[in-house]
Amino acid sequence: MSDRTEGGARDRYAWLACAAADRRSIIILIAFCRGLGFMISHVLDPLTAYLATSPGGMDSVAIIAAAAQHVAFVVALQSARFLVVLLVGPSVARLVARSLKK
Q1: Is 61 helix (H, G, I), strand (E, B) or coil?
Q2: What is the pLDDT averaged over residues 14-23?
Q3: Closest C-alpha to 78, from 63, 59, 58, 64
Q4: pLDDT value at position 87?
Q5: Mean pLDDT score, 28-36
Q6: Which residues make Cβ contacts (< 8 Å) with residue 81, sequence separation at least 6?
Q7: pLDDT of 41-87, one tens digit each?
Q8: Please, are residues 62 and 76 in contact by the beta-carbon 8 Å criterion?
């Protein structure tokens, strides 16, 4: 019975640490997308800027972007975002895992 309690405390600590890291990363992602969208909105219309920088499913964003004027730009920026996450994501995950071990 005591093994369960000790494991539960460790699991709860790991969950709290991950939840805090997740909240920070979500806030950073939202702020980055908002800033990028704000910069792009000076060049393009606000709908295109929003769709090009919003995190989410590329397929749903592309469908909504069909109503916008710059579908190719939206899809290109979403594809670039996907590639950056694919290439940088594993390194960031390793960095976060190491920092949580310490």
Answers
A1: helix
A2: 70
A3: 58
A4: 93
A5: 83
A6: 55
A7: 888 888 777 777 777 777 777 777 787 777 888 888 888 888 888 89
A8: no
Six-digit token pair at 26?
């979500």
Query: Residues 30-67, buried b or exposed e (16+ Cβ, 10 A)?
Result: eeebeebbeebbeebeebbbbbbbbeeeeeebeebbee
Flag whether the pTM goes above 0.85: no
Reading the block at residue 6, the tokens are 């000790």
Angstrom CA distances, 82 to 8, 27, 61, 64, 70, stand at: 36, 19, 13, 18, 19
Residue 44: closest CA among 84, 66, 22, 74: 74
- Rounded to an integer, what distance in angstroms lies between the CA atom of residue 63 and that of residue 58? 9
Is the CB of residue 56 less than 8 Å from the CB of residue 65?
A: no
> Cα(14)–Cα(12) distance, rounded to whole angstroms?
5
